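Components:
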Amino acid sequence: MLKRLTALAATLIVAAGTAYADPIAGGRANVVIQPEPPSLMLGLVQNGPTQMVAGNIYESLLRYDENLEPLPQLAKSWEISEDGLTYTFHLFDNVKWHDGEAFSADDVVFSADVFLRETHTRLRSTLEHVESITAPDANTVVFKLKEPFGPFIGVFEGGTMPIVPKHIYEGTDYKTNPANNHPIGTGPFKFVEWVKGSHILLTKNEDYYIDGLPYLDEIYWHVIPDAASRAVAYETGVIDILPGGSVENFDVSRLTAMDNSCVTDKGWEFIGPLSWMWLNNREGPTADKRFRQAVMYAMDREFAKDALWNGLGKVAQSPVSSSTRFYSDDINKYDYNPEKAKELLAEMGYDGTPVRLLPLPYGETWQRWAEAIKQNLEEVGIKVEMVASDVAGWNQKISEWDYDMAFTYLYQYGDPALGVARTYISSNIGKGSPWNNVEGYENAKVDELFDKAAVAVTKEERQTLYTEAQQILTDDVPVAWLLELGFPTIYRCNVKDLVTTAIGINDGFRDAYIEEK
Amino acid sequence: MKDFWQRFRRNRGAVIGLVLLLAVILIALFAPLLFPQSPWKMVQRPFLPPFDMGQYPLGTDALGRNVIAGLAYGAQVSLLIGLVSTVVSLAIGIPLGAFAGYFGGWIDDSLMRFTEFFQTVPSFALAIVLVAIFEPSVMSIIAAIAIVSWPPVARLVRGEVLSLRSREYVEAAVLSGQKTSTIIWRQILPNTLSPIIVLASLMVATAILLESSLSFLGLGDPNMMSWGYMIGAARTVIRQAWWLSFLPGLAIVLTVLSLNLIGEGLNDALNPRLSRKGK
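Structure:
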């Protein structure tokens, strides 16, 4: 028996576009791209700027709404067998590549099984759970897993599994294929030209497989290397859309105060950037659980959110971002409570040993944030020495465990098995990387919970396991969680339906349209 | 001494400078009494404008920190770094210059080539590199400023010593069998004191500027509130809150100006014939 998770594309498009007026076709979106991407071939390069542009050229089987529930993309419907081992996707049957060739299930098999296995590190480790990928007919793809793998339904996103054309890449050297300079996908926009250092131009795909989409005629990506110039370009009307992170935080309030200027912090739910302070669990005062809890109580995170992040984002309560699957609300929460912090410090007998604090050298906002937290901590009696450092020094100090407290932020990719477990499981302790279990937290129970949860079959089972893990972690406080970062996308209010999915404007232009002012 | 004070007083600018500097010194000394709370403490809502709230007469910065407290503690940092780094560079420059000038010959040549090596490297660039290598802290900043500031001292002292060592009283001292070190220390150096004092007062001013520039670039000691840091942090919000950059900037201007005025006054007072000639 199959559990049908079918949803018709048409209904969803209507649901996504619950605007008051009918969408209007036509117009050009002027967007900033920062920094200029190294390549637009999404199958080879998956960094932020590449995906932001190429996410409109290439597509995957699914996209995800802001609760990370799958939506149709190339697959119009799909089923997961009850044992969690077989994923069957039914593809749209009228899809064409931008060069006119017909798209079929063979392209999906080639992309996932051959091309991306070779080029895509993050996907490759996921594909280790896969036994076979087959195409029983031209419009059906079947993924068979070796064992149940909960996060699997979350890997069919554009940047994780972009579908590339088999007829162009099969049997060639992928890295030197001339098509890399003129990417060919199935997406709503086609590549026109890329003048390095100036702009990238995409034009509407007239043969797109969903009637009426996209609405825009063109997307014009402007390359402007200087942050202040990007802000000015928006102010003077050259630019309509500033993707998250393209202007300095302190400019955001000024730009959003302009007429016809809107801002949203949505569209980051899929990667779920979560910031925290590493606390060195091995030595010094931070090795004491009560000290770490005191740090959590001492920090005024609401203040930092309002004063430094323009009120965008959310105070992080758990190691799992609230936008990531299996976040649980049933955990130990830490509100700003300096008295409680002082009590805990008194109870542990903190002797005033100074702790070193390493800010994230990513600019003014992070520097101010470190100053604010230092002050918060000193007010409850913790002596803090700020250590100045550049990016290379920061990387090295963290990788070599030479710190007491250090700022960072990491992505979660929608599922605790993909983006959370790596920070807390003891098998991931090892010098030399600033992204693994750097704090040196070891808890056999937590290891076991994460292991079990990754391969549990049902959602309910996984939720139970992850809830327990979150309860233990929020009691042990291996790291001091700060904010679920909200990177603001600033845009003219008459650009509608720009951010409708958890992937944000990376695949947002399909549904976007421009309304007359 | 009375003479000196009278000549100094004749230069009205110098007196104004002295009053200003004394004010800055007093503020720096009494900062912990005037503002018992740390200048890093977030006391009010951010961006409180000046003169809005009696308790915080100059308003608050982007994190709600008391600006006037920051200025007072900044005075400590500026004066401390200005003075100490000047003392250190004098300690390097004076002996080097004195040896070079007194012994001449190859010692002079090699010491002066060594000095020129430091003079040819742009001093601010060198200071940035030094602070970046040793990680910003009070010690590394003082060291960096001292290392880039001593060459003018060495050259000045060498010139003075060169002209003094052929004077009759020095030759008399040599004939009377005094030790070389005694001659340099007792006979020559005291007579080079006045130009050194004038130079030193200007060097303190330069050092304060250097420290401010380093802090502005984010290379200040992250644990100390300094004027350059305040400007650097406020630069990003200059369009919303210009006074946050303006006030510490004004503090730097006034302090540096006062030191320059004093330097000029000292020059007048210590070299009366030289300075009055042209006027």
